[in-house]
Amino acid sequence: MRFLRFEKIINLVRGKYLRYAVGEIILVVIGILLALQVNNLNEKRKDSFSENSYYFKLLEDARQDLLNLENQIMVCEQRLNASNEILILVQNNSSIQEILSKSFNAVREMSNHFKPIDATYEDLKSSGNLKLIQDNLLKDNIINYYSSLKGYTDIASNGSQFATNVFVEKENYKKAGWFNIDFVRESIDSIKVDFEKLNLNQANREAFDEQMISDAIFFIFINARLISLYKKIIPEVNKHIKILENKENI
Prior knowledge:
Elements: H1 2-91, H2 96-106, H3 119-127, H4 136-168, H5 182-187, H6 202-249
Helix pairs in contact: 1-2, 1-3, 1-6, 2-6, 4-6
């Protein structure tokens, strides 16, 4: 009788312990699940913050692209005017110094052509953070935007390089009149060098004029082409800006 009572007590204690143990396990599991859920929420919150931060930076980059394009058009127009002035000066038989000065202006900052600001986009690609952009249509738009700008930039780069080469690469720098460039003339030792012997004769002057006309026409072509190219890019940049502004306001 005592044994049965003792066994009953043991079973009762064992049952209470099992219920307690199961309850503890359930509490631990619930705690782990809650912790995971909180962690997931924190990660989503961080990703959302990073995504919005990228939108803001991309928008700022695009706005700066627009300003740079407008500035590039202004510089191209100044170079275009200088190129036309070369033709006028040659027709008026102006001095070589005047013509060469305008020639410099016709290719001023030519190598500093438009280049999109793509630091944010490159960061998105290299870090793998493109996955943070949840809107797939927007993601495709961003990728296509920078791919399109790269194509335009390559064209601008090639044209600018061609114009620079035309200006710099001369078969004969004396016949090209380069000794009449102000800083070149100032750097020549006038005590030892007879400038009169450097002056172009009539035949060389005619050849110089022909070369300047040829150069000016090419500079007009390049600068007019760049202006047309930049004006073609502007609507794409404005469209990109509008899309990012709408996303930022959501």
